[in-house]
Amino acid sequence: MSKSTISSRFTTTVLKSTEKILRGLLNSMNEPFLVANKKGEVEYINNDAEIFLQSLGVKVDKLTLERLFRLFNFVDNDYFYYWQELWQKKISYFTICQGKCDTYYEVRLSTMQTKPLPLVVLVRLRDVTESMIEHLDNRRVSDFNAQVLETVPDSIIVLDKDGNIILANKEYYKSIEYSSTDVIGTNLFKTDLFLAHHTLHGRFKKLLHDGTPVQIEKISYPSKLAHKNFYLAIKAVPLRSKVGDVIGALSIARDITELEEAYLKLEELNRNLEAVIAERTNALKRTNEELARAIRVKDDFMSDASHELRTPLTIIRGNIELAIRSLKGQMPEELHTIMAEVNRMTAILRDITFLVREPQVEQRLEPAKFSLDETIQGMLMGLKILAQQKNVYLFSELKYGDVIEADESKVEKLIYNLVVNAIKYNRRSGWVKVNTYANNGHAKIVVEDSGIGISEDKLPHIFNRFYRVDRARSRQQGGSGLGLAIAKTVVDLHGGKIEVFSEENKGTRFVITLPRKQGNTKSEQKSLV
Questions:
Q1: How far is the CA of 281 from the CAs of 267, 285, 457, in angstroms?
Q2: pLDDT band for position 160 (cuts 50, 70, 90)
């Protein structure tokens, strides 16, 4: 036997022996293993790989790695990428999944050569479903958190135990005007904001030491680019380990610059407004003082004029009365007209004198207890003749039945003016009714008529001095335009209230409310409203 024959037989024996050892080693593994040649053709599979391929319905005959992996979905890249990577690095890792990715396998391709055996590709398949699903879930959560972190309009950073920045969102870069390469790893305590604010420095030190939260409503910091101060509201909380130790912190800062600037502008506007209001108030005060002086001058003039006119009117009246007596009752119509005008002028002067007096309220009133019903009844008796002359029916329902404490003469003047107006401005065969009754401790007086009424647009002005609803008719009736002004003045002096309800051509109703007693006029008046 030649040496070459012996060598060939020895080599064959060694190959078989090595291949047997390799097969035994692969079969002892608890994971699927395949062996392929350089072309990717599968030459051997172990027992686990055989079971795995049978579960997929794959025939082992003439099986190639490319055909095998086309049955799966590649998580990243594709088969050709990893096959080329294998020959560059002698090893390649990738992940595949089956069906709808309910099952994941990690694939390891590696080249192996055990001389005298030829170079082979060893393929290991390992079920990594549980770890892969956990990894994908973590990645989804991480992606979601990153998305939230980037969309939050506040500046967010995460610190480690020493105050180094380990995570920051894009708003933080904007707020401190850093580039993305400047922040991560930077110690927060060495930033401009913390160097400028020692209180902030101390509070964050305490946060990282014992977990005391930080909340700051407003803090300013200078902008390098905008050349102005910006304002932040900061809140920071500790991050703890599972056993409760502080391992870092999460800090959130909100830019409140626009809010603060708006607040400062508002404060400035308020200051300006206060100055304008003060200026307008002073101007109004001066105007009121000037108006008060003008009113006093006017009232003094009216008072003096009425006083000066009263003397010649008295002389005229006396001369007319002498003339009447000398004529023994045969008075010409001219004297009747002159006497009527003198009487009208005297009444006007009396009303003017009443309205322009300026003493204090206590001096103007002479309160005394009297029967309201009896006073009104006596006054109405004196007006019966006037009512008959105007063909107006005058009647009353006086049910107050008690005394009041007031200035009797002024209250009588009040009712007199209202009733006389109701008679004068009534229609023929009309009526005037006067009622009194008690209501919540007050005296109510109602004067109602069936007269011509007052239009709605004129009602707000009827208590003004010298105001006449119908000037021509008032002149004809001898009215001065002061009767209702006097009535309102009397009511106000007593701390009462006067209301008017009227409709044109349907009559008018005055309702007067007077307090039962004087002496606490302000409190009584509040209860009337």
A1: 20, 6, 32
A2: very high
Mean pLDDT computed over every residue of the chain? 80
**Closest by Cα among 223, 180, 189 to 207:** 189
- Residue 254's φ and ψ, nearest 5 degrees, are -105, 130
What is d(CA 374, CA 372) in angstroms, rounded to the nearest whole number? 6
Q: Determine the average pLDDT of the residues in 236-242.
A: 92
Alpha helices for 327-407 (secondary structure H): 333-356, 361-364, 372-389
What pLDDT band is residue 220 in, cutting at 50, 70 and 90?
A: confident
Q: Given 3-state DSSP classes, what are the helix, strand and coil percentages for the chain, each rounded to the nearest 5?
A: 50, 25, 25
Confidence grade of residue 182 (pLDDT, cut at 50, 70, 90): low
The 3-state DSSP class for residue 40 equals: coil
Reported as a pLDDT band with limits 50, 70 and 90, residue 522 is: very low
8 Å CB contact between 487 and 480:
no
The torsion angles phi and psi of 309, rounded to 5 degrees, stand at -75, -25
Q: Are 418 and 510 in contact (CB under 8 A)?
A: yes
Cα–Cα distance measured from residue 235 to residue 237, given in angstroms and rounded to the nearest whole number: 7
Mean pLDDT of the 279-307 span: 79
Beta-strand ranges (E) seen in 113-169 are 120-127, 155-160, 165-168
Contact 477, 424 (CB under 8 A): yes
Dihedral through CA 159, CA 164, CA 170, CA 172, nearest 10?
A: 90
Q: What is the pTM (predicted TM-score) of this model?
A: 0.42
Write the burial class of residue 105 (CB in 10 Å: 0-12 exposed, 13-18 middle, 19+ buried). buried
